[in-house]
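Give me structure tokens for this 297-residue protein.
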Amino acid sequence: MRKILVLGLIVLFVGSLALAADSSSSSNLPKYILLNREDIKFGRMADHDALMHQMIQTINTTNADFHFVSATSVTGNQSDFVGIGMFNSYADIEKGMETLRQAVKANLQNADFVRESQESHVGGRVTIAKLQADLCHGADKLNLGSGRYWDVTTIEVKPGAEDDFEQLAKEYVDLHEKNKIDVSWAVYQVQYGGAGTTYVYITPLRSLADLDVDRSAAYKAAFTPGVSNRFNTAFRQQVAEVKSMLLAMRPDISRPEQSIVAANPEFWTVKEAVATPTPATKSKGKKKTLVEPAALK
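Here you go.
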């Protein structure tokens, strides 16, 4: 139970979606996440990455205020591509979708783009989820852009058990706060595109080494045998399905906004490849390495 509720969400997105952080909020968490899961044919991920670069170049020509982050699966189906859009309103979602539609429309004029898209993709699914602030823990210090990886989980609740599960999740948060257990997570509830009532938990990881931290003593003190038995029993009664996975974030095929880059600039700043000087150009000096945030590319 403790592992399940500390984890995060199955998110996934086909091309790109805008990110917008609310500067007036005490938290860096967006109010909505739009997710789409793309299943890429085996052996065609490199082709898909090339299509993503082409989409980014198209968006760059419009200088649109349109940003997204991408990821691929570490566990589960390793042919999954993940795109994650973050918004603060449905109006913002609509604007982002229109920008994406225009970029796709422009690229559909290219026969090679159409052919590669058809040959590399199997299918996808779009989901929109809304932040549940009262189920988050440590949200005031949590920034989704800080993670090189996301520890993710979806929890589908049985019909009729929604209120009971929400109370259980709040108690889980309270136990962490009272016992000062140093973990943080964000929680989103699926609004569209999910099955029944589904909660998605997100824990960004700066490194997979974060998973090596031993918190067993703190959990043992907070979750006594009586508390653990009660949680486990309630969880079995209330939950229909749980899915968990690890995502590896992909700065090379992302277009993050500055708030994301600032959360982990070393990771999100993409270094341009430097061509090896030819004999004819060596005397003119080596070309300097250019470093540019992916958001500005």
